[in-house]
Amino acid sequence: MSTPVAKPGLLRQSRWNPYAVGAAIGVLSWVVFALVDKPLGVTTSLTGLAGACAVPVLGAEAIASNDYFKAHAFKWDYGMVFLGGIALGGFLSSLLAGTFRAEAVPSVWRERFGGSVVKRMSAAFVGGILAMYGARLADGCTSGNGISGSLQLAVGGWTFFLTLFAVGVITAALLFGTRRSSNS
Amino acid sequence: MPFLAAVAAPVSGSSALIASLVFGAIFGVLLHRGGVAHYNTIVNQFRFRDFTVLKIMMTAILVGGLGVLALHSAGLANYHIKAANMLGVTLGAAIFGVGMVVYGYCPGTAITAAASGSLHALVGLAGLLVGGTLYAFSFPWIAQHVLPVGALGKVRLPDVTGVPALVWFATLLVIAAVVFFLIERAERRTRAAVATVDSESR
Question: Engineering a disulfide at A22: which of A104, B5, B56, B75 sits with its beta carbon 3.0 to 4.6 angstroms away?
Fold first, then answer.
């Protein structure tokens, strides 16, 4: 098939159609449900990694005696390897698209809060703490609750999705204002 | 159907680990090429300036949901429903919502972003691990005081409403079709307006 305008091949396009990407994630969830008998999820396995990383700081005993870490012990199981796969996929995808580049302060943040790296990194760190704490309290994140839960019509999944979205909109309005004049 | 039975048998052992690496990599590629491994895309969704996140999530829910429903009806897949502890889920989602906007990523997109060069995503990953540890140490109190409040069990919308799954999906499909039609039309108009301004300023 030849097109009149030379377009880069699929693997080199930096962005794919979002509906196609969503549909592909849906198809991926069919395969994972049928073959691995598990839903797509991220933070459950991340909990085990958190425990493993906390060992040098808090001591092996504190981690081993914690009931939650006992139930979510670190192991190289399906979920943990899946996280490694996500990193591998993101890395290869950005190399192929030619978009791999170090970014410390994204443009939308810079426009509002300036170019300070320390400020951005501090916010990312605190935001990360909140995101993971919330995801554990809700027993799932955007993947495990928002997509996997919602696609099974789980009550918890939809409660998570709708609450997250509403609170996210309020937070963004407080942080960035609601003025529409500046673009990007 | 022996073929389907073989397909439906869960993979195990080392083949499961290889499969999970491949599935994870596909997920990472999709998040990256979908454009959601970028701070700007995620934050601008919550500012209603970019609808990529909603387009991806709603399409994934509809396509994934109808397929998993079909697989489940055919006896080829099990549901994996998490307990709807309403207070825990609502509070957790609210804290998550604040965190996601301040961080600019959710955990899956954060891993993808860090792997494609985002340094602040990498720093936030350390925050995720700290957050997981804080939760683990607050868990005894949470399990006693928060999780039991409004604990509905592992329920689905059809269970609590009596409305069949297919009706839910049909409704969601109609809502999504209308919303995305309007969004696409608005985005076309914005692009046209930007193009006009560009050509006039040239």
Answer: B56
Chain A neighbours among B 127-166 (CB < 8 Å)?
127-137, 139-140, 142, 146, 152, 154-160, 165
The DSSP result for B106-153, as a single string, is -HHHHHHHHHTTBHHHHHHHHHHHHHHHHHHHHHHHHHHHTTTTTB--
**Does some domain include residue B106?**
yes
Asked whether residue B139 is assigned to any structural domain, the reply reads yes
- Please write the tens of the pLDDT for every residue from B7-34: 444 566 788 889 999 999 999 999 999 9
Cα distance between residue B68 and residue A4, in whole Å = 40
Q: In this structure, is residue A23 part of a structural domain?
A: yes
Looking at residue B159, its pLDDT comes to: 96
Residue A59, chain B, CB below 8 Å: the answer is: no
| Least Cα separation, residue B146 to chain A (angstroms) | 9
Instruction: With respect to residue A109, please indicate whether it lies within any of the assigned structural domains.
Output: no
Q: What total number of domains does chain B contain?
A: 1
- Cβ–Cβ gap B100/A155 under 8 Å: no
Report how far residue A148's alpha carbon sits from residue B60's, in angstroms, rounded to the nearest whole number: 9
Q: Residue type for B141, please? A: W
Which residues in chain B are closer than 8 Å to A55, comparing Cβ atoms?
Answer: none
Per the domain annotation, does A91 fall within a domain? Answer: yes
Is A65 within the bounds of a domain? Answer: yes
The minimum CA-CA distance between B134 and chain A, rounded to whole Å, is 7
CA distance B171 to chain A (A): 12
Residue B52 placed within a domain: no
pLDDT of residue A180: 64
Question: Total domain count for chain A?
Answer: 1
Overall average pLDDT of the A59-69 stretch: 94
Q: Which domain holds residue B100?
A: 81-155
| A64 inside 8 A of chain B by CB | no
- For residue range B118-173, list pLDDT tens digits in order: 999 999 999 999 999 999 999 999 999 999 999 999 999 999 999 999 999 999 99
Range of A30's domain?
Answer: 11-101
The predicted model gives B48-56 an average pLDDT of 97
In chain B, residues with a C-beta closer than 8 Å to the C-beta of A110 are none
Q: Does A130 touch chain B (CB under 8 A)?
A: yes
Of B34, B88, B96, which is closest to A21 when you measure between CB atoms?
Answer: B34
Give CA–CA dist A183/B177, Å, rounded.
Answer: 27
Alpha-carbon distance of B2 to A61, in angstroms, equals 49
B126 within a domain of the structure (yes/no): yes
Q: Quick count: other Cβ atoms within 10 Å of Cβ A152?
A: 27
